[in-house]
Design a protein that fits this description.
mainly alpha, 2 domains, binds protoporphyrin IX containing FE
């Protein structure tokens, strides 16, 4: 294994672990939404988990950039998944920015939290890693 490949693999594993942890937020929320209204402790739990969703996704995105930079593999699915990740990360950050009107933030939230975007993101990542 070349040195670059070793670095790429290391950051790939870190990135995978971080993304799984950060985005398990979504299925957890989907399940918990069935049991509303939430007791106070569940509401506090999701408030803290949302903070983690944001910060851990940003760290995962940095790990992903290093992973991709040192990797020898390139294909259209991986490129597309990188673009969708950039979009989700920036839309996520901008959604919280005080500089935008609440209308703009609402629209960004709508796109950021779409189930289809999430599923396309997952499908591209998986496809990109299984095709030669
Ligand atoms: C690849 C990275 C990301 C993915 C796949 C992703 C995906 C999602 C999904 C599916 C939801 C919907 C959850 C729900 O309906 O309750 C969500 C919510 C949210 N995400 Fe992300 N996200 C990512 C990164 C980020 C980042 C980097 C930030 C901010 C720094 C962020 C901020 C938020 C916020 C604030 C919400 C809650 C929206 C609300 O309920 O008002 N996300 N994200």
């Amino acid at each position: 294994m070349s040195e670059n490949e070793g670095i790429s693999n290391f950051f790939g594993i870190i990135c995978l672990l971080l993304f799984v942890f950060a985005n398990a937020y979504y299925p957890a929320r989907l399940i918990a939404n069935q049991y509303r209204p939430w007791p106070k402790d569940i509401a506090i739990f999701f408030k803290k988990y949302l903070d983690l969703h944001m910060s851990v996704n940003i760290v995962a995105f940095i790990a992903m950039t290093i992973h991709a930079h040192f990797s020898d593999d390139r294909n259209i699915f991986l490129m597309a998944s990188l673009l969708v990740t950039v979009w989700l990360t920036f839309a996520g950050i901008l959604m919280r920015s005080k500089k935008f009107s609440s209308d703009t933030k609402k629209q960004m939230r709508l796109i950021h939290t779409q189930q289809t975007v999430f599923l396309v993101w997952l499908a591209l990542l998986i496809l990109g890693h299984v095709v030669e």
